[in-house]
From TrEMBL, chains A, B:
<dbReference type="GO" id="GO:0008408">
    <property type="term" value="F:3'-5' exonuclease activity"/>
</dbReference>
<keyword id="KW-0963">Cytoplasm</keyword>
<keyword id="KW-0239">DNA-directed DNA polymerase</keyword>
<dbReference type="GO" id="GO:0005737">
    <property type="term" value="C:cytoplasm"/>
</dbReference>
<keyword id="KW-0235">DNA replication</keyword>
<dbReference type="Pfam" id="PF02767">
    <property type="entry name" value="DNA_pol3_beta_2"/>
</dbReference>
<comment type="subunit">
    <text>Forms a ring-shaped head-to-tail homodimer around DNA.</text>
</comment>
<dbReference type="InterPro" id="IPR022634">
    <property type="entry name" value="DNA_polIII_beta_N"/>
</dbReference>
<dbReference type="GO" id="GO:0009360">
    <property type="term" value="C:DNA polymerase III complex"/>
</dbReference>
<comment type="similarity">
    <text>Belongs to the beta sliding clamp family.</text>
</comment>
<dbReference type="GO" id="GO:0003677">
    <property type="term" value="F:DNA binding"/>
</dbReference>
<feature type="domain" description="DNA polymerase III beta sliding clamp N-terminal">
    <location>
        <begin position="1"/>
        <end position="119"/>
    </location>
</feature>
<comment type="function">
    <text>Confers DNA tethering and processivity to DNA polymerases and other proteins. Acts as a clamp, forming a ring around DNA (a reaction catalyzed by the clamp-loading complex) which diffuses in an ATP-independent manner freely and bidirectionally along dsDNA. Initially characterized for its ability to contact the catalytic subunit of DNA polymerase III (Pol III), a complex, multichain enzyme responsible for most of the replicative synthesis in bacteria; Pol III exhibits 3'-5' exonuclease proofreading activity.</text>
</comment>
<keyword id="KW-0238">DNA-binding</keyword>
<dbReference type="InterPro" id="IPR001001">
    <property type="entry name" value="DNA_polIII_beta"/>
</dbReference>
<dbReference type="InterPro" id="IPR022637">
    <property type="entry name" value="DNA_polIII_beta_cen"/>
</dbReference>
<protein>
    <recommendedName>
        <fullName>Beta sliding clamp</fullName>
    </recommendedName>
</protein>
Length: 366, 366
């Protein structure tokens, strides 16, 4: 194998495929980056079996070949080389010579035979969606996936297309996040994508108005983002029937400035450091939300003006759950709906009907 | 106690005095910030006994008093308040009420009686030095103080004034850093300042061309930086006679571009990961420095042009020691002097004679 490419391009390729490489792996080859020569580019690949990322880097190919090279060391070296042309050529004794200006590295490489292929998806229908739109969908939902492995299906985000509407839904037993977008698709779909995959996809997405393409087979999902392919295992099993657990009724509805509420909750939660729950209390009455919290160190009272419709309610929450939600929402004013101090609250945008968040309250000892 | 001040000013004061507060302390009061009302300002103080920092914050005083308040909680709260006027007033049950717009915090405070006073320095002569100059002196030397406590005096930087020249010197048994500045002072001085103190002083110094003032008594040093006073214990004992260990003779002198050499050493050291020593080898001959390193993963060769005068030398170093030095130097071209593969190397600026760095080589097994 022998090729030449620009340092800048190679660094970008390395950074992309490294998102699939976990570091220590029982299979040595998975700690490496797979490199194969193409016509006018090299194909780079990183994989942890569940998630594989493949990308192309423009190169002049002098001799065909393929190798696997230690991801961390290779990445560190290439990043520190001068911003110039880099030449890579395999030598005797399973080494590769990396040359750039006055630098020469000789690294051991691994046999590429054992490196896993990219799972085949087949010629299914492809869903097109704008990169920035999809990134926002991920950001708006993936924070709510379950972190513990007791119910694996909840560690993923539901990707559901019904009648040209894409719903993405995550829930962890304490809160639920759902966001929807119109989609030009003729097929209905319902799959569960691992939260980890979406977080890596999100890092590769640009904030450009360009299309990415999504396709599936029974076990895998393929994202095609410009020069890059990301293939991930899907989670197996049925997602929770989320529609049946979101209440549609309420006894109190109020409108509030999102940033103002978030800042007040954040301050109040400074006081709420007993254990990990960060408990804060809300009293909604007389067109204001009174947020309070007590601990052995003192107490806090925050007042936020709201415009309310319905009965006064006293309710307590884990501050983090509210903050996570308020942070990813995008409208200046939001609407919160409640029924009682022991029923879930619904949070949604005041103008666009494109998201729904549900947060369970904490029952107060009386 | 009752006063009002701007959030912005209070945050600045808190950040300044927190530099002396270590967090957990066997004396609860030292986990707190001391606040005392003055005429048109409050006096804030943080201390870990060895190091105390006092600063003033412009305030309207309504009622005199003094308290100690938990540093971390108080800092977190004030930083998150809106950028507006904050009012603080002591209430019953040893609590203080902090109000700002629609936020109210009630915090427990501690008795201020037990908080240590700032050590008195007395009316000694004060040495004036520009803030940016002193910051640069610290940066150029303090990295070389010893990290282990086996010889406590080496955990400090020598501050020596002789014939209107200030020499600051640090050494740890493997390398030495020395930098000098002209100083308008009539008194000769020789004290050893803890490296930790200088690092905190450095964070408080601005990059402005303003004077700071330094004075001493037998056990303490006082830095006066605008509204802030920093008092630190001095290290007791005699510093090593550094002049006698710096060689003045050499057999090889070469001039080299500092950035080029640093980048090459940094790349070469990527390969040198056996243990913590990061060993690299230098061959200086035929007007070039050949930098090499080997490990189980491969090898590297870097070539840096130099202009040399004297005999060719082969020598090995811990890459980190060279990099630490090259990073803090400021001239584009530097001069390195060597005598043999087992003698210390001297590194200095090529134009200004204001610094001297010494690095011990690593003996190569033959």
């Amino acid at each position: 194998m022998h090729f030449r490419c620009q340092k800048r391009d190679l660094v970008e390729g390395i950074s992309t495929v490294q998102k699939a490489i976990l570091g220590k792996s029982p299979m040595a080859v998975l700690e490496g980056i797979y490199i194969e020569t193409g016509d006018q580019e090299i194909i780079m690949r990183g994989s942890d079996i569940d998630l594989s990322i493949e990308t192309l880097v423009a190169s002049s190919i002098m001799e065909e070949g393929r190798i696997v090279i230690d991801s961390k060391l290779f990445g560190d070296i290439i990043r520190k080389l001068p911003d110039a042309m880099i030449e890579l050529a395999t030598m005797e004794n399973n080494t590769i010579l990396i040359s750039c200006e006055n630098s020469e590295f000789n690294l051991l490489y691994l046999n590429a035979e054992e490196f896993p292929m990219l799972p085949e998806i087949g010629n299914r229908e492809k869903i097109a969606i704008k990169e920035d739109t999809f990134r926002n969908l991920i950001r708006s939902t993936s924070f709510a996936v379950a972190q513990d492995e007791s119910r694996p299906i909840l560690m993923g985000v539901l990707f559901e297309v019904k009648n040209k509407v894409l719903n993405m839904v995550a829930l962890d037993g304490f809160r639920l996040a759902m966001r929807s977008e119109y989609l030009e698709s003729n097929e209905d779909v319902s799959v569960v994508i691992p939260g980890k995959t979406l977080n890596e996809v999100s890092k590769i997405l640009s904030d450009k108005d360009e299309d990415l393409f999504i396709s599936f087979n029974d076990n895998h999902i393929l994202f095609e983002i410009q020069n890059t392919k990301i293939v991930s295992r899907l989670l197996s099993g049925n997602f929770i029937k989320y529609e049946s657990i979101i209440p549609t009724d309420y006894k109190l509805q109020f409108k509030v400035k999102r940033a103002h509420l978030a800042q007040s909750i954040e301050r109040a939660s400074l006081m709420a450091k007993d254990g990990s729950s960060r408990l804060i209390k809300l009293n909604i009455e007389n067109d204001r939300a009174l947020i309070t919290s007590n601990s052995q160190f003192g107490k806090v009272k925050e007042e936020v003006p709201v415009s309310m419709d319905g009965d006064a309610i006293e309710i307590a929450f884990n501050a983090n759950y509210l903050l996570d939600t308020l942070k990813v929402m995008d409208e200046e004013e939001i609407i919160i709906e409640m029924t009682s101090g022991v029923s879930p609250a619904i949070i949604r945008n005041s103008i666009t009907d494109n998201c729904k968040y549900m947060v369970l309250p904490v029952r107060l000892a009386r």
